[in-house]
Amino acid sequence: YENQFALTSLEPDPYGIPYDYYSIMHLWKDAFAKPDTITIETLDKMYQDIIGKQKKPSKWDYKRICYMYRCDVCMGEKMEH
């Protein structure tokens, strides 16, 4: 599971989307960990117990999908490509 934690890029998000602690795609803090250990430690501690617990996509998840599929409108907003 090591590839799940590899840093793939230091470049900003190509769509201009900020880091999304609320993303439905985010792994939980102890994903693939040994008992009582943490594999993902957030820089901002207030998000530590939030990551990986979402039940529905965040607004940024939807925005990313809209950019990827080049939608003209996303969540009621005109999209720039």
Sequence stretches where pLDDT stays below 50 over 5 or more residues: none
> What gross morphology would you assign?
elongated
Structural class: little secondary structure
End-to-end Cα distance: 35 Å
Helices and strands, in order, run as HEE
Main β-sheet description: 2 strands, antiparallel
Number of strands: 2
How does this model look, in words?
This protein has one helix spanning 59-68, and strands at residues 73-74, 77-78. With 81 residues, it is largely without helices or strands. It is elongated, with a radius of gyration of 15 Å. The mean pLDDT is 87.
What is this structure's SSE topology?
Elements: H1 59-68, E1 73-74, E2 77-78
Antiparallel strand pairs: 1-2
Features:
two-stranded antiparallel ribbon; 81 residues; 1 helix; 2 strands; little secondary structure
What would you say about this model in short?
The chain has one helix at 59-68, and strands at residues 73-74, 77-78.
